[in-house]
Design brief:
The protein is of the alpha/beta class. It has nine helices and nine strands. The strands form three sheets. A four-stranded parallel sheet has the order 3-2-1-9. A three-stranded parallel sheet has the order 6-7-8. Helix 1 packs parallel to helix 9. The longest helix has 12 residues. It is globular, with a radius of gyration of 16 Å.
Length: 216
């Protein structure tokens, strides 16, 4: 991340907040606060709310206002307008599935940390030329998984990644063991039926299990 406005005073990068960043799709903004509280209680303070639903920005606003221990960010940021809307809603970091020069400029100017998405070595090199060292690797499993990231570590040691896309609690430890991986993104701790029924204790339990993955 290139911005001096870090996600919290104690951390320079979202990659260092927790081993897993929950990737959250919220259909009903009323679910945002109890969901975020359950994730934070389980040890996952960095929460990526994807801008895939009409409720996303309201969810970010609610979490920002009511869950002070959460570091809420916006995911699926794909335009300069999306950057502006997310930051205005209170997002403390930004995540994109890919990047263009215009999107990158907007993220740099936003004043908050960001993870632009990459899936090839050329994209990584292009970001390193721009002074960006923290990136999202997406779609992780489809783009080559741990073998691909391991192959990047020697020629491109400055690049650090948050792999996201198809990662499970079974595969996550292998990613977290790589020297160039700071954390992984996933949604397995957010089963749809638990959200639909408001089973927040289950979400908290699954979050706690995810938070402990790095120790394995």
């Amino acid at each position: 991340m290139t911005s001096s406005a870090g996600p919290s005073p104690a951390h320079a990068s979202v990659l260092d907040l927790a081993p897993v960043v929950p990737v959250v799709v919220i259909d009903d903004a009323a679910d945002a606060v109890p969901l975020a509280r359950a994730l934070v209680a389980g040890g996952l303070p960095a929460i990526e709310v994807t801008l895939r639903t009409p409720a996303a920005l309201d969810a970010i606003r609610a979490i920002t206002a009511e869950v002070p221990d959460a570091v809420v960010g916006a995911g699926t940021v794909i335009s300069p307008g999306g950057v502006r809307d997310a930051v205005d809603a209170g997002a403390r970091f930004l995540v994109s599935p890919g990047w263009t020069s215009g999107l990158l400029d907007a993220m740099k100017a936003s004043g908050v940390p960001f993870l632009p998405g990459v899936s090839t070595a050329s994209e990584v090199v292009a970001l390193l030329e721009q002074g960006v060292t923290d990136m999202k690797f997406f779609p992780a499993e489809a783009a080559g998984g741990t073998a691909y990231l391991k192959s990047l570590s020697a020629p491109l040691p400055r690049a650090r990644f948050c792999p996201t896309g198809g990662i499970s609690p079974t595969s996550a430890p292998a990613y977290l063991a790589l020297p160039n991986v700071g954390c992984v993104g996933g949604s397995w701790m957010l089963p749809q039926e638990a959200i639909a029924t408001g089973d927040w204790p289950r979400v908290e339990t699954l979050a706690r299990e995810a938070a402990g993955l790095r120790a394995r």
